[in-house]
Amino acid sequence: MKKMKHLFIKAVLPGTGIVLSGIPVTAALMIYVFGFGHKSEPFSYIAYVISAYAVVILCVWTAKRGKKTIRLAENFLRRNQYADMYLSDMAFKSLVSLYLSAAFNILYALLKLCIGVFYHSAWLITLAAYYGFLLSMRLLLLRCTTVDSLGKDLLMEWKRYQYCAVILLFMNAALIGMVVLAIHQNQGFQYAGMLIYLVALYDFYIIITAVINLFKVRKHGSPILSASRAVNFAAALIAMLSLETAMLAEFGETGDTVFRNRMIAATGGGVSAIFIATAAYMLAHSRKEINKMTM
């Protein structure tokens, strides 16, 4: 039994050289399988197993050494005044994230709108509308907001929190339109080769981060910060829905539209329900707090 345990530990925790060499080996295998069209060959299954093992040992290796590496990186970054503020000040970090996200939303929404109009694509125009609503929420939260002002004018913040809840309902309408178009017009996202795995890792990261941050900001007592995290959570949910359409397009069986449509409808319905529940909570909570301050 001890020998088996020792072998298991050795398999999961090999030397650093083996772990790091697995990265280029995995990249080469995936390029061979997806880049050169060998997905249906028997060797591709061996490549999947090797790649999966390489990912597992890399994750274990990273988790084991992650804390020390993160601590060293933080100590290095904290030498810079603004980097130190970003790491230690939740309000400053949230505002920086809002500005960066708003800038990305402007570019992304305009790009999708222009392409959608040019190609007469209802899917792309609906996607642009969704990101337009997302942008309007972020701009609303950023309007006349500074790090020092957060948590000071709570009545104003609760009103903006309430407006965000209303916009979230409009976003839900755009979401429903996206789901309907994805089902009836076979619309969705597609990523070439290894890119879909990178997108999947990023989407899982942002959804986990968004959920964690939903609870973190409660400590700061600012409705603006709470609303910004709700916005990020909504964006993360749409990212997961988009990823599902891409995964079904890449790995689903050709012609099996029934399974694809059921999966998209189920996920879209779940995300829509979360949107409605979140908006209802935000409306009720903000109304309660506003009534307390104005009565």
Beta-strand share of residues: under 5%
Termini, distance in Å? 70 Å
Determine the oligomeric state from the structure. Answer: single chain
Name the average pLDDT. 76
What is the alpha-carbon Rg in Å? 23 Å
Helix/strand class: mainly alpha
Assign a percent range to the helix content: over 70%
Outline type: globular
Description:
This protein has about 300 residues and is mainly alpha-helical. It folds into 2 domains: about 1-75; about 80-295, no CATH class. The chain is about 85% helix and about 0% strand. The chain has helices at about 1-10, 15-35, 40-75, 80-90, 90-120, 120-140, 155-185, 195-215, 225-250, 255-295. The chain is globular.
Core attributes:
mainly alpha, 295 residues
In short:
This protein is mostly helical and 295 residues long. It is built from ten helices and no strands. Helix 5 runs antiparallel to helix 6 and helix 7 runs parallel beside helix 9.
Blueprint (SSEs and pairs):
Blueprint: H1 2-12, H2 16-35, H3 42-77, H4 81-88, H5 90-119, H6 122-142, H7 154-184, H8 195-216, H9 223-251, H10 257-294
Helix pairs in contact: 2-3, 4-5, 5-6, 6-7, 6-9, 7-9, 7-10, 8-9, 9-10
